[in-house]
Design a protein that fits this description.
Its EC number is 2.1.1.130, 2.1.1.151. It holds the Pfam family TP_methylase. Belongs to the precorrin methyltransferase family. This protein is an alpha/beta fold. The protein folds into two domains: 114 residues, Cobalt-precorrin-4 Transmethylase, domain 1 (3-Layer(aba) Sandwich), CATH 3.40.1010; 91 residues, Methyltransferase, Cobalt-precorrin-4 Transmethylase, Domain 2 (2-Layer Sandwich), CATH 3.30.950. The model has no long low-confidence stretch (mean pLDDT 93). Bound molecules: S-adenosylmethionine.
């Protein structure tokens, strides 16, 4: 069974290996509309089956769902190759982990291979135009329901459902915050530092927080000075 990371949403950000295995799979399982539609850019949607993982804290319901999903995957795996797709990377804050652990415990005959995907944990940087410079510290955290965990100078916060509350607390803790909603997801992307633009609690929202007044010194800084000197010389020559 292949656990395939689909990347953050744009079909073009699936790895070549992920695409090869997805196209070769006899059965494809997806656990949400988003992953279904990204996978559907590569294989016919009619061939993608749904795995359901309820959004609940009820342990019994969750365990029942994981058991059922694992049984279906194990049965399909007897008849051919199975791909289970997840957005981003299967091993980063993903429901795939529950399925993998359930399979390992209850169906140890199923061989599992994970194909990494481009995680929102790194994709946010390109989308928001952020550079995590060599030598910097950065942490991944979850920030559900207005939580605002703090830590090193830079944080990537997943599952930001109350952007305003998270922003307020981070501001008090000395961080500047930027939000990315539905990054790499067609026309729906929002990038903003104004939490009031994100009042609907959209699930695919993350935040990047950076300590204010970070002491940054780049070796390349000298080029800027050189460039401005050259500019000055040129302007003087023109006079
Ligand atoms: C259950 S986690 C899955 C993470 C995924 N496995 C990964 O590696 O990116 C879901 C959270 O990831 C973040 N996320 C994933 N894809 C995103 C995207 N395209 N744009 C913004 N946030 C995203 C959101 O914070 C969302 O609540």
């Amino acid at each position: 069974m292949y656990g395939i990371g689909l990347g953050p949403g744009d079909a073009g950000l699936l790895t070549l290996e992920g695409k090869r295995l997805l196209e070769a799979a006899d059965t494809v399982y997806a656990s949400g509309d988003r992953s279904r539609s990204v996978a559907g850019e590569h294989v016919p949607e009619s061939t993608i089956e749904a795995l359901s993982f309820p959004m609940t804290d009820d342990d019994d319901r969750l365990r029942r769902a994981w058991r059922t999903a694992a049984r279906r995957v194990a049965e399909a795996n007897r008849d051919g190759d199975v791909a289970v797709v997840t957005l981003g990377d299967p091993n980063v804050y993903s429901t795939f982990g529950h399925l993998r652990r359930t399979l390992e415990a209850l169906h140890p005959d199923v061989e599992i291979e994970v194909i990494p995907g481009v995680s929102a944990a790194t994709a946010f940087a390109s989308a928001l135009g952020v550079e995590i410079e060599a030598g910097s510290g950065i942490a991944l955290r979850e920030a559900i329901d207005g939580a605002a965990p703090v830590g090193p100078d830079r944080l990537v916060l997943f599952k930001v459902t109350d952007a305003a509350a998270t922003a307020e607390k981070l501001d008090e803790a000395g961080y500047d915050v930027r939000f990315g909603r539905q990054l790499f997801m067609e026309d729906e992307t929002v990038m903003t530092d104004d939490p009031d633009e994100l009042t609907d609690g959209e699930y695919f929202t993350l935040a990047y927080a950076e300590k204010r007044d970070l002491d940054r010194e780049f070796r390349t800084e000298v080029f800027r000075t050189e460039e401005s000197r050259t500019e000055e010389t040129r302007t003087e020559g023109d006079r």
